[in-house]
Amino acid sequence: MYLQHFGLREFPFSLTPDTEFFFRYGSHQEAYNVLLVALRTGEGFIKVTGEVGTGKTLLCRLLLKTLGDEFVTAYIPNPVLTPAALHMALADELGIAYARNLGQPRLLKLINDRLIELNAAGKRVALLIDEAQTLPLNTLEALRLLTNLETEKSKLLQVVLFGQPELDQRLENPNLRQLRQRITFAHQLSPIDLQGIEGYITHRLHVACYQGPHLFGKRSLAAMHRASRGIPRLINILSHKALLAAYGRGDAMVLPVHVRMAAHDTEDVMLHRPHLHLLHSIVGSFARASVLLLAIVVLHSSGSAS
């Protein structure tokens, strides 16, 4: 596609949570700092919330990657689990061998013994749960009971919950008030502001080995921020499509028109109404901007081949 056209080694705006692309800015850097401090001080429960697409999974992956040898980590990416399934998932993550028909009391004893063993070896155990808003109420309570495992001086298990705002609503349930009181650190991820969006895009281009002049001008960045509302996932989608549009037209940089074309072809974006008449004149008889992008790319490729 456009890698050679712009001198890129890889696609800079992939949706895969690649930790090399983590942008240390604003609430994302603050959340990372809070997590490190809380885990190293031995707190029981830590909570990070954010809207869809704000980078919770990427932050979780970065934490898993950067915690030092003093930590043993357990990661549960899909927590729609019963209490029994949660115990089994934790046991698997801790490398505990057990019979699948083992009763819950005996499995919990194995988990407790393993946590005590790791604590004696000077290790901290951190359980990271992504998409925590999907945890059933009884599983959340089972999670709280797991954090009751402790020595006289420290918790044997620390838990980090990553979830959408619905997690806060779930924790308002009166039956979870004990768990709610144990959340000693909490942080909310915010969208990237207009000032930070240039740094975000520049950073991802740099990681992808772009070495040319600025690809996105000020007006393009403003259009990008307006359409994406500063949500990283939408910024990535729009930037990828805008680069595709610029490549298809043979342009050396991304113009506001490319961003508007990308926005018109993307769900859950804010279209700037005063410019819709310009957008319509561009797409002409094409029903959607994606059709136009495809046609331009095909024409461009054919011309290059000839």
Q: What's the average pLDDT?
A: 88
Approximate strand percentage: 5-15%
Could you tell me the radius of gyration in angstroms? 24 Å
Name the helix and strand elements from N-terminus to C-terminus, one letter apiece.
HHEHEHHEHEHHEHHHHHH
CATH architecture of the largest domain: 3-Layer(aba) Sandwich
Shape: elongated
Major pleated sheet: 5 strands, parallel
**How many structural domains in the coordinates?**
2
Low-confidence stretches: 273-292, 294-306
CATH class of the largest domain: Alpha Beta
As for the CATH topology of the largest domain, it is Rossmann fold
What share of the residues lie within helices?
A: 40-55%
Widest beta sheet: strand line-up: 2-3-4-1-5
Total DSSP E strands: 5
The fourth-level CATH homologous superfamily of the largest domain is: P-loop containing nucleotide triphosphate hydrolases
What does it look like?
This protein has two domains: 3-20 and 192-305, no CATH class; 26-188, P-loop containing nucleotide triphosphate hydrolases (Rossmann fold). The protein has 14 helices and five strands. β3, α6 (137-146) and β4 form a beta-alpha-beta unit. A five-stranded parallel sheet has the order 2-3-4-1-5, sandwiched between helices. The protein has helices at residues 3-6, 26-40, 56-66, 83-93, 104-120, 137-146, 166-171, 177-182, 194-207, 218-228, 232-249, 256-264, 276-283, 289-305, and strands at residues 45-49, 71-76, 124-129, 158-163, 183-188. α10 (218-228) runs parallel beside α12 (256-264) and α11 (232-249) packs across α12 (256-264). The model is unreliable at 273-292 and 294-306 (pLDDT under 50). It has 306 residues and is of the alpha/beta class. The two termini are 17 Å apart. The longest helix has 18 residues, at 232-249.
